[in-house]
Design a protein that fits this description.
The complex is a heterodimer. By secondary structure, chain A is α/β, with parallel strands linked by helices. Helices cover about 50% and strands about 15% of the residues of chain A. Chain A has 7 helices and 6 strands; from the N terminus they run αααβαββαβαβαβ. By secondary structure, chain B is mainly alpha-helical. Chain B is about 70% helix and about 0% strand. Chain B contains 7 helices and no strands. In chain B, α2 packs antiparallel against α4, α2 crosses α6 and α4 packs across α5. The longest helix of chain B is centred in the first third of the chain and has 26 residues. The chains are: A alpha/beta, B mainly alpha. Chains A and B meet through α1 of A and α3, α4 and α5 of B.
């Protein structure tokens, strides 16, 4: 004999899979019938997502970014929070957190040399901060603005110059 | 079960009394039911936009993103309907608690790492509601209601009748 509570937990054991299977079945059937259906397994590589949000691909390949960095032809702008920037950033990068862009942009704008390529970056393949910042800077009149997708990670993975909290020379 | 025909239960069946806790219980499941149904609609209508919102959370592996965007809104819809009509309550209440905990985790995690993304909680529009402390608090509020339902469903706290009559029910 089961107590009432035990029999309820037994019900939970079949009801949870039943609800999920029911939802999965209906969801996938409805999706296959609708004209704007999406694939059950989608392609979410960084490139497609960057192009998808604005229809414009602003991504710059890492090799290009590195070349411009070495030739000192680019200014990098970090779109992450100040704390993330303080923990570590691409050497020489300016900090312009996307969330404070309205407030901070005027002061940062003075530091951006007109003749340089602007490369924005943040962290994570799906991070849109740098893309939004690049679009914003273009709207503000800067023409040569690009985004280094997943910038902080790929830059470190390639052992390129960084400034970190314990070894910063401001 | 053995008490089904006890004099008290016969009496209670003829005179169903909805006490304060009873009203609270029904109100809780209706509120959560409506919340889940409402939350599911926009996502069911725009699966592509919801998939984008799920993607931006950067928590799930790529292959799970679309599947989640297709199935989760329907889980919410069925869950909402079941909560409103009172069907499969033990399962529905446990899923409800799990979902609010998962949402809470996802929201807090992305708030902590400072991602500027839309919540995707009630609307799939990128401009409607960001992941902020209010989204976490609202989720926390629903989680409290959901936990209450869990306690009542599993008889850890009484639901029907007044608190006093529930406590004395077994000694007619």
């Amino acid at each position: 004999m089961f107590t009432r509570e035990q029999s309820k937990w037994r019900q939970v054991l079949w009801q949870i899979p039943a609800i999920i299977l029911l939802a999965g079945f209906v969801g996938i059937c409805v999706n296959s019938l609708r004209p704007d259906s999406i694939p059950v397994v989608g392609d979410w590589s960084a490139k497609t997502s960057t192009a998808a949000t604005t229809g414009e691909n602003l991504a710059i390949p890492l090799a290009e970014a590195e070349k411009l960095f070495s030739a000192q032809l680019a200014v990098f702008i970090d779109a992450r929070d100040e704390e993330d920037y303080a923990r570590g950033h691409i050497r020489g990068a300016l900090s312009l957190p996307w969330k404070d862009v309205g407030k901070r942009f005027p002061e940062i704008a003075r530091d951006i040399p007109a003749d340089k390529v602007i490369i924005t970056y943040c962290d994570g393949e799906g991070c849109h901060l740098s893309h939004d910042l690049a679009v914003f800077l273009r709207q503000q009149g800067f023409e040569n603005v690009w985004e280094l997708v997943n910038g902080w990670t790929v830059w470190q993975d390639d052992n390129l110059p960084v400034e970190e909290r314990n070894a910063v020379s401001p | 079960m053995e008490e089904k025909n006890s004099p008290y239960n016969k009496y209670a069946k003829r005179h169903p009394q909805i006490g304060f806790t009873g009203i609270l219980y029904h109100a809780a499941r209706w509120i959560l039911g409506v919340v889940f149904i409402y939350a599911s609609l926009h996502k069911i209508l725009y699966p592509g936009a919801f998939a984008e919102a799920v993607y931006l959370y950067q928590i799930l592996p790529d292959w799970l993103i679309n599947l989640t965007a297709l199935v989760l809104p329907w889980v919410e819809l069925f869950l909402g309907i079941f909560l409103v009509i009172g069907l499969w309550m033990p399962g529905a209440v446990v899923i409800s608690n799990l979902l609010f905990m998962i949402f809470m985790g996802a929201l807090s995690y992305n708030m902590a790492r400072g991602l500027d993304i839309s919540c995707g909680c009630f609307s799939t529009s990128p401009t409607a509601g960001t992941v902020d402390i209010w989204a976490v608090l609202l989720d926390g509020m629903f989680l409290v209601v959901s936990l209450y339902l869990l306690l009542v469903t599993f008889r850890w706290v009484p639901a029907r009748g007044s608190l006093l009559s529930s406590l004395t029910r077994r000694q007619p």
